[in-house]
Amino acid sequence: MAYFQDNTILNVSDYDDDNIIKVAPLEHVRMRPGMYIGKLGDGNHADDGIYVLLKEVIDNAIDEYRMNAGRTVEVSLQNETVSVRDYGRGIPLGKMTDAVSEMNTGGKFDTKAFKKSVGMNGVGIKAVNALSSRFVVQSSRDGKTRRAEYEYGKLLTDSDIFEDNTSPAGTLVEFTPDGSLFENYRYKEEFILTMLRNYAYLNTGLTLIFNGEKILSKHGLLDLLNEKLTAEPLYPIIHLKDEDIEIAFTHSDQYGEEYYSFVNGQHTTQGGTHQSAFREAVARIIKEFYNKSMEYSDIRNGIIAAIAINVEEPVFESQTKTKLGSRDIAKGGVTVNKFISDFLKKELDNYLHRTLETANILQQKIQDSEKERKAIAGITKQARERAKKANLHNKKLRDCRFHYNDNLTKDQKRNEMIENSCIFITEGDSASGSITKSRDVNTQAVFSLRGKPLNTYGLTKKVVYENEEFNLLQSALNIEDGIENLRYSKIIVATDADVDGMHIRLLLISFFLQFFPELIKKEHVYILQTPLFRVRNKKETRYCYSEDERVKAIGKLGANPEITRFKGLGEISPDEFKHFIGKDMRIDRVTLRKEDAVGDLLAFYMGKNTSERQEFIIENLVIEEDVA
Description:
Elements: E1 2-3, E2 9-10, H1 25-31, H2 34-37, H3 49-66, E3 72-78, E4 81-86, H4 96-101, H5 124-130, E5 132-141, E6 144-151, E7 154-163, E8 170-177, H6 189-202, E9 207-210, E10 213-215, H7 221-228, E11 238-242, E12 245-251, E13 258-263, E14 266-267, H8 273-290, H9 296-300, E15 303-309, H10 336-354, H11 356-375, H12 377-392, E16 397-398, H13 412-419, E17 422-427, H14 428-438, E18 444-449, H15 462-466, H16 468-477, E19 490-494, H17 499-515, H18 517-521, E20 525-529, E21 533-536, E22 541-544, H19 547-557, E23 562-565, H20 574-577, E24 586-589, H21 598-606, H22 610-620
Parallel strand pairs: 3-9, 13-15, 17-18, 17-19, 19-20
Antiparallel strand pairs: 1-2, 3-4, 4-8, 5-6, 5-8, 6-7, 9-10, 11-12, 12-15, 13-14, 16-18, 20-24, 21-22, 21-23
């Protein structure tokens, strides 16, 4: 007899040969989907599994283009079924079914057939097959075609190879994600369009067609940066390109650093070795160009940059390929650091010598950043010490066990908790008390505000350190030196759904927009939706998030149900609150588009143009009848 560490009895007979189970490879994908596509999700977030499935299929089509086979990729979405048609070489017909159903089988292992592709593990398209209720693959080449259809990864029909002189060469993949795994899922076209635009930026000359709409880019990363800029650039975008590397960057008056990095066409949203190498190299080479004593942080402050490189046999830190781990550009070749550094040393140095107007503007920006940093140096040091002491016993922060910047391991459950870590920013002790008592201590932290935070519009970053609340929030999020080590995947603003609560939301969003805009651009900031009403009778309780839902609930529950209007988060008991921050939590992502000019937005809503704002409020005021 044996014991666990907590002295409970371990019955050895509970673990014998009968407990060793062998499952088919595709069945393993269905049992452990998180190992292959990250989280499942319902399609409300850009990193949900249904978009990973689509990306895996499109990656194969893009790899065909990158091998100079086919210049068009067609993507269509009908209801919840997606199809991707490329005009490349077509999957070899004899092994077509093996390529989409046999694990660790595929052409990506042969670097002669696929150089510098994203998929290298023979997993992606098989995972799509396994996690789809219906999966169709059709390949055409050399005047012949083969078509096969699957359900849940199991072959239903196979046409074998037949003569076909009408279908152009290439591959068609059509799939419907399994609704029993991706519950109540729905594709959002905005996420698909963003994905396709990124493919276009990275593959000039490629035409992508989505439901009839053409997407293409003539200028690569230059087009991408122009699309992402929400503040006026201080100088024209510097765009440098060579074989296997492309870089574009500029500076603006915004705070912090903003990066978009790619490897072999894959958007590495969490950066990696290439992004780190670029950050270090661009600062060092600019410093060497001016031959002056400069801090790297001053050089990078306000930078908006994109970098794309091609690597042979890339190594990513997870199957979803969001962070590059490769140290070398090619097997036995130069390191990523040296490759990027050598390129910038030659091309950026030459550019700055040729374009003195840009060089002068950049130097002025660096000097302005240095001046501001030195002006708040004393305050910064004191604030760091204060935050360090507070972190030892920070009454404002009820932390969680797992954090977004923890290292990923082979433990799928642990990795899911890391990816799902979040922090609720709440209004007052009453609301934070309800959330704290009902939260998941593994993944959900709580930061409590005293009340309305300071309006930071028109203030410099000095306020982040002078204001104790903002300084402690910055420290809790771990974003003082950039968001690469952000501690929580989601920052969720949780306030009352009244005028004061809306004002607090606006003040916090203004704070992030001014000093940490990348948090919003990289989709880390959310608003928690909590119910406005509880409608119940003796048999059933319904929570309603809108007046329309309240009316429907009354209709369902019959005459004279009890109706409660929640006027604040503190009025919701912890037993009830756990339903609103669990797996069915409703959150709205704070978004920022190019047309949302940050300076103009903040000036109008948070500036001193009182009369203009009053007119806007009067013209747009909606009065709703209160409910007793």
